[in-house]
């Protein structure tokens, strides 16, 4: 079984890298990385949201989220505002430009996923998701 686990681990790693590259190429014309996309998507789904909450939502560490947020602010895709309830908390929201680009990016990402998962049934994708969640749980 030893070699089998190595092969599975290798294939998962290579597939994850290839999926990342595929998505990166698909959205490259927007000058947004997959990591930035995940933050934009999280902000849109939960806005206004704190940087701490977006780090939890995207499963990224705080320094990484801070860097991504700074870039997205410079690109004028998001804004940071002080919370009215707690002045220690900064809340993130999409700008109008950010809303437009997020909608356009979502269409590209969904089309990319359709290509990535072509020929794979919904049941198989659900099974794959369950397996990957179980592996992740074993790593915690």
Automatic annotation (TrEMBL):
Enumerate the UniProt keywords alphabetically. Answer: DNA-binding, Transcription, Transcription regulation
Q: Does the keyword Transmembrane helix apply?
A: no
Q: Which residues form the signal peptide?
A: none
Q: Is DNA-binding among the key words of this record?
A: yes
Q: Which Gene3D superfamilies match?
A: Winged helix-like DNA-binding domain superfamily/Winged helix DNA-binding domain
Q: Where is the HTH marR-type domain?
A: 1-137
Task: List, alphabetically, the PROSITE patterns matched.
Answer: HTH_MARR_1 (PS01117), HTH_MARR_2 (PS50995)
Q: Which GO terms describe its molecular function?
A: DNA binding; DNA-binding transcription factor activity
Q: Which InterPro entries match?
A: HTH_MarR-typ, Tscrpt_reg_MarR-type_CS, WH-like_DNA-bd_sf, WH_DNA-bd_sf
Give the PANTHER family listed for this entry.
TRANSCRIPTIONAL REGULATOR, MARR, TRANSCRIPTIONAL REPRESSOR OF EMRAB OPERON
Q: What is this protein called?
A: MarR family transcriptional regulator
């Amino acid at each position: 079984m030893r070699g089998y686990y190595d092969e599975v681990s290798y294939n998962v790693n290579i597939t994850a890298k290839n999926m990342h590259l595929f998505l990166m190429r698909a959205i490259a014309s927007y000058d947004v990385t997959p990591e930035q996309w995940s933050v934009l998507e999280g902000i849109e789904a939960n806005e206004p949201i704190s940087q701490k909450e977006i780090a939890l939502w995207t499963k990224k560490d705080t320094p990484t989220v801070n860097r991504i947020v700074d870039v997205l602010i410079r690109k004028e895709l998001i804004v940071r505002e002080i919370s009215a309830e707690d002045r220690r908390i900064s809340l993130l929201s999409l700008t109008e430009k950010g809303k437009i680009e997020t909608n356009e990016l979502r269409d590209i990402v969904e089309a990319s996923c359709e290509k990535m998962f072509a020929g794979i049934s919904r049941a198989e994708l659900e099974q794959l998701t369950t397996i990957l969640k179980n592996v992740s749980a074993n790593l915690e």
